[in-house]
Structure formats: C-alpha cells, structure tokens
Amino acid sequence: MILYHFCAAHMKNSILAEGLTKGMFPHFEGDDLEPIPKCQWLTKDPDPRRQSWATQNLINYSRTAYRLTVDIPRSHHKKLVRALDFIRDMPAEDQELVTGWAGGDQWYIYRGNIPPKWILGYHRMERYA
User: Fold this and answer.
1) CA 89 to CA 91: how far, in whole Å?
2) What pLDDT, in 10s, does the model give residues 10-34?
3) pTM of the full structure
C-alpha cells in the first residue's frame, strides 16, 4: 500500500538512513502526556497544502518540506491502522487529535518501525516548504 509521510528538511536524511522510528501518538492521562510509542503517521493524501497539522505557528520551518513515498508490504498491513479506527475507543480529547484536523480521515498509523527500504523515494515540496 502506497502512503506518504511529510517531514521537515532537517529530518529527511536521518529518516532515509534509519527509517521512521520516532513517531508517537500524544495520548493524555488526565493532565499528563503519556505518548503511545511506535505510531508512525502516514497519509493517503500526497498534497502538502491539505496537511492541516503542518502549521508553522510555533516553529520557523516547514513540516512538509519533503514528501516521502512509503510502500507498506502486504505482509505488514496488520500493523497499519486507519487513524479514525485507532482512536475509536479513546477519550474525546485524544480523538480530537485526528477528528479536529481537516484531512484526518486520510491518516493512517503504522504500529512499529518503518525500515528505510520501504521508503521508495522523496520529493521536495518547493512551493510549500
């Protein structure tokens, strides 16, 4: 299954070398952040303009400078979960991390690490970086 992962320019080379390994879901337990590890965020939508989470309000760089094309092998599809299904039984405040953003219906979470060999290539998003 072909999906996409957007990243900042300064993260591209390490992702290409090591794969996607640092993703997490920011789950809250009361007022405490208890991130769920090994949640690599992917999308079906290749357009950086429709990545509503990629705001630059708090940072001074583009989070969509590069689009990585990722091919999840069929034998690993069991670890791939639609984000809407992943949050289904979570508290409302956690669900809003997907439902509160335009395009959330296009998101997937891969539960584990994505090795570099699954990354087919990358594309610089010149106009949107």
Assistant:
1) 7
2) 999 999 999 999 999 988 887 888 9
3) 0.89
